[in-house]
Write a structure and sequence with these properties.
Helix content of chain A: 25-40%
Order of helices and strands of chain B: HHHHHHEEEHEEHHHHHHHHH
Radius of gyration of chain A: 27 Å
Number of helices of chain B: 16
Distance between the termini of chain A: 96 Å
Radius of gyration of chain B: 22 Å
Helix content of chain B: 55-70%
Oligomer: heterodimer
Distance between the termini of chain B: 21 Å
Number of helices of chain A: 17
Number of strands of chain A: 23
Strand content of chain B: under 5%
CATH topology of the largest domain in chain A: Beta-lactamase
Shape of chain A: elongated
Structural class of chain B: mainly alpha
CATH class of the largest domain in chain A: Alpha Beta
Number of domains of chain A: 2
Strand content of chain A: 15-25%
CATH architecture of the largest domain in chain A: 3-Layer(aba) Sandwich
Strand order of the largest sheet of chain B: 1-2-3
Largest sheet of chain A: 6 strands, mixed
Shape of chain B: globular
Largest sheet of chain B: 3 strands, antiparallel
CATH superfamily of the largest domain in chain A: DD-peptidase/beta-lactamase superfamily
Chain lengths: 486, 437
């Protein structure tokens, strides 16, 4: 009977080999697929048991932290945002059932400690709980608060963005209305129903608006740097003039004679820049727009679906690269075939690129990453995103924009920085001519000779107002904070 | 080195495992564990030493590896139970005391285990009655749709655990007597060898019993275990693979028939084929088991690191973790390596069991050893296979690892029988012993 006993044992071996095979399949070969199944809540629960790192402001305030609840097996961490709505938009939220947005989403790997594969395997063998790193943002709590204060006093939703020109560090990013991330677990659905009117809509980088005359800086940059014109190029500043068969007026119908570019920018002469735009041409203008960062999402650490592309859009909301009225796009407006629309963030990048001698630094919301033991594991390494214009062009533009503040459309703001000279450009985009609804803008940087901060400020609409009087004071308050310290 | 010294040496890794396992659970679980709970490990090891000393006296020639292998499984089980809930480890250690008593009683009372042959019909009747008990009104208990438990006042047990011993003892005895007739009387028909009609009767009875179990107890796994043990014994007794194939064919034909006609049997099979179809209902258990294994990976999360319930509420993430699904927890915390380790121990036990069957000198001993080993290995296969979706989910326990008194006690008796057979087989010739004695 021994032969069948041996064969019986072989049969048992086959059965047990089957067990090893299936276990290998579930535990190793098929593991990633199983982990991704929607029915599998285990990864979610486990993520909740990792103490997620803190998110801090550049000046050390805690924006987001994880608080433990329960003990032992029941231990879990819940995200808390001590500063409430102040950083709601750029930082976003992270909750088990509601998902993640903003920096919480893009910094997920760092915050949960998954970025360091070796350490986490080592911890796993030692049976140590995975711990996340802390993310120190570039955002300044004082500047952020100041921006909120500026916008809260306005009659319409708006946004302010402040960027450090030589590093790309985003020092302030505010959109109103904001939202308090702590309320997301209960109020998310309600907020989502509000669509673009709700606080979840980060209009500083998701909202696209006609930039109005602030866009003339881009047109001027393209004209100067491409050689299509120089600061002394004289054009007819009379009003109205006909472009694409439709008459175009200067603001208030003001008449200028033959003027140079400096005078034209100082007084924001529409007819001059419309002609200049036609001389630059569609291709060159788009080329320079791309260098400034238009036509693609900003390169900052936010999720793609939470950023908007700035550019020329037709009435169907599609980006176009030809067939539009370049004269009107050149002054920051446009028509049905193509209208220039830009995010406040994009316009801040325009100011920052000029301020930094024509080099646009890659924008960043992250200053540094510190591991749980407090060691810095990575730090913002300033990096040129694109060479937009030459240093000479940037200097010429700075000079013209300084003149805007000294004697032009922003002359009323000249003393706002306590004697520090700064450069700027006003914008008043027409949104509804009949009802006189405008979108006021201001972009600028300070000090003019050694820029430390570049700012863009806007509100979505106001009636019969101008950029210089509504958006200007918000921008100068921000610049004053950085130049003169609050 | 003598067999018993080898056995003592074999208990060293058991002690190491207990110390390391209990210490790591204690360190991870810390606050929630009673300081005195650490002694459950020592308590269990004392039981192992007592059994060893008893074997030294009573069965000096018995297989030296079998007991340490079983102790290793029990140690793994105890550590995992301790990790789930310290009271499970305490209860389990207590069950091992009862198991040890029955182990000793078996060895003392059945020193001449051939008496079992005399009472084979009594034994099989008792065994079948045991299997029927779970469906008797008032005492039967349904667990997860299967009728495997009995609940009489304070006494709750799983009759199938004891039933399997009775069935194997009967079959070994019956086949020892009838194996020649089965072989000689066999007829070849259409190229297939059929057992003689006269003896086909008892086989049909066994097949009928397996089918009955399937429908009555509603557990495909345990009927597969019983019928598999029967086929293994038929094969060993007759060396006719055709008998096994015919038997398997009959089993699967019957299973297919009942799966398509009896709802609850079919449901289990549907869940096995597509657990995602009802992920929150019928498919929940096996899916959670697969997810837990996926989470374990190659090395596992470490002892005490598995999520047993959802944080914030008590919804289990590994259902029935201390009994049916303990293998899923082992893979979750100890990884593929841990799971393979457990399977390797079962393989070694099977190897030792079949080894005993090959060296045993008489037919009954051979068949009994092979049958006990086969039923033990099949039980491990059926429950692990159910947990990892090789076969439909079933309700038997993982021998020596799962929480539960019936399982511990019945398997300790099974171990005692194997050791009795091996002691007889390995004992030096009678004449020598007379001189010594």
């Amino acid at each position: 009977m021994n032969a069948p006993i041996v064969r019986l044992f072989i049969g048992v071996l086959v059965l047990f080999a089957l067990l090893v095979g299936f276990t290998s399949n579930w535990a190793v070969f098929d593991a990633d697929e199983l982990a991704a199944k929607s029915q599998n809540k285990r990864p979610l629960f486990e993520a909740q048991q990792i103490e997620r790192g803190k998110i801090l402001t550049a000046d050390g305030e805690v924006i987001a932290e994880s608080k433990p609840k329960g003990k032992g097996d029941q231990l879990r961490y819940v995200r808390r945002y001590p500063l409430g709505s102040l950083f709601g938009n750029p930082v976003g939220y992270s909750f088990l059932t509601e998902g993640q947005t903003g920096l919480e989403q893009t910094q997920q790997a760092v915050l949960t400690g998954e970025d360091n594969e070796f350490v986490s395997i080592l911890d796993q063998i030692r049976g140590r709980q995975q711990e996340g790193s802390n993310v120190v943002t570039t955002l300044d709590s004082g500047a952020q608060q100041l921006a909120v204060d500026q916008l809260d006093g306005q009659s319409a939703p708006g946004a302010i963005v402040a960027i450090e020109p030589d590093t790309g560090a985003v020092k302030a990013m505010v959109a109103t209305p904001g939202y308090d991330p702590n309320t997301i677990p209960t109020d998310k659905q309600q907020l989502l129903e509000g669509g673009q009117a709700s606080g979840l809509f980060n209009r500083s980088i998701q909202g696209i608006y006609p930039p109005g005359s602030t866009f003339k800086v881009v047109t001027a940059a393209a004209a100067l740097d491409s050689g299509a014109a120089d600061p002394d190029t004289t054009l007819d500043g009379s009003s109205p003039q006909t472009f694409s068969g439709v008459p175009l007026e200067n603001a208030g119908g003001e008449e200028f004679g033959d003027i140079d570019m400096r005078t034209a920018l100082t007084h924001s002469v529409n007819t001059y820049f419309a002609q200049l735009g036609e001389e630059v041409g569609t291709g060159t203008l788009l080329d320079y727009m791309e260098r400034f960062g238009f036509e693609k999402d900003p390169e900052v650490q936010l999720p793609d679906d939470q950023m908007a592309t700035s550019g020329v859009f037709n009435s169907n909301g599609k980006l176009v690269d030809e067939g539009f009225d370049v004269a009107r796009v050149a002054i920051g407006q446009g028509g049905a075939e193509g209208q220039i629309l830009a995010t406040p963030f994009q316009m801040a990048e325009v100011a920052a690129a000029i301020a930094n001698g024509g080099k646009l630094m890659r924008p960043s919301l992250v200053q540094e990453v510190k591991d749980p033991d407090g060691r810095t594991t990575s730090r913002l390494d300033p990096d040129v995103q694109s060479d937009v214009v030459s240093e000479d062009t940037a200097a010429e533009l700075t000079d013209m924009m300084t003149s805007v503040v000294d004697e032009g459309t922003a002359a009323a703001l000249a003393g706002d920085l306590g004697g520090v000279t700064f450069a700027g450009k006003t914008g008043t985009a027409e949104k509804n001519l009949d009802e006189r609804i405008n979108q006021p803008w201001f972009i600028g940087f300070a000090p003019a000779d050694d820029p430390q901060i570049a700012v863009a400020a806007t509100i979505e609409q106001c009636t019969g107002c101008f950029g210089g009087e509504v958006a200007g004071p918000m921008a100068t308050a921000m610049m004053n904070y950085f130049v003169n310290g609050g | 080195m003598s067999a018993r010294n080898k056995e003592l040496l074999g208990l060293v890794p058991v002690a190491g495992l207990l110390i390391a396992g209990f210490a790591s659970v204690f360190v991870v679980g810390g606050d929630d564990l009673d300081n005195t709970s650490l002694i459950f490990g020592a308590y269990f090891f004392a039981i192992c030493l007592a059994a060893h000393i008893f074997l030294r006296i009573r069965l000096p020639y018995a297989d030296p590896y079998l007991f340490p292998l079983v102790a290793l499984l029990a140690a793994i089980g105890l550590v995992m139970l301790y990790r789930i809930d310290e009271s499970f480890a305490r209860d389990q250690a207590n069950w091992f005391v009862v198991g040890l008593v029955l182990f000793m009683l078996t060895i003392v009372l059945l020193k001449d285990y051939f008496v079992l042959e005399r009472y084979r019909y009594l034994i099989v009747t008792g065994g079948l009655l045991l299997l029927l008990m779970p469906r008797l009104p008032g005492i039967g208990a349904q667990v997860n749709g299967a009728y495997l438990g009995v609940d009489i006042g304070p006494l709750a047990f799983q009759p199938a655990e004891f039933g399997k011993l009775a069935v194997v003892i009967f079959l070994a005895s019956y086949l020892r007597e009838h194996r020649e007739v089965l072989v000689v009387g066999a007829r070849r028909f259409a190229g297939i060898t059929f057992p003689p009609i006269k003896h086909l009767g008892p086989m049909l009875v066994v097949w009928g019993a397996a089918m009955f179990l399937l429908v009555f107890i509603r557990d495909l796994g345990s009927s597969l275990m019983f019928f598999g043990a029967f086929l293994a014994l038929i094969y060993v007794a007759t060396n006719r693979i055709s008998f096994v194939l015919i038997g398997l064919l009959m089993f699967f034909a019957g299973a297919w028939f009942f799966a398509s006609t009896v709802g609850h049997v079919g449901d289990r099979i549907d869940v096995w084929l597509d657990p995602y179809a009802d992920a929150q209902g019928d498919g929940f258990q096996v899916l959670q088991s697969m997810f837990a294994q996926a989470d374990g990976g190659l090395f596992g999360k470490g002892i005490g690191e598995s999520l047993l319930t959802a944080p914030g509420n008590d919804q289990p993430l590994i259902p029935e973790v201390q009994t049916d699904f303990i293998y899923a927890l082992i893979v979750n915390e100890l990884g593929l390596f841990g799971g393979c380790g457990v399977i390797a121990i079962y393989t070694l036990i099977a190897a030792r069991g079949f080894k005993i069957a090959t060296i045993a000198q008489d037919g009954f001993s051979k068949l009994l050893a092979a049958g006990l080993t086969a039923v033990f290995a099949l039980q491990a296969f059926v429950i692990i296979g159910g947990v990892i979706r090789v076969i439909p989910l079933t309700g038997v326990t993982l021998p020596f690892i799962s929480y539960g008194g019936s399982s511990v006690i019945a398997n300790m008796v099974l171990l005692a029988l194997l050791l009795l057979i091996s002691d007889r087989a390995r004992r030096p010739q009678q004449s020598t012993q007379d001189v010594i004695g």
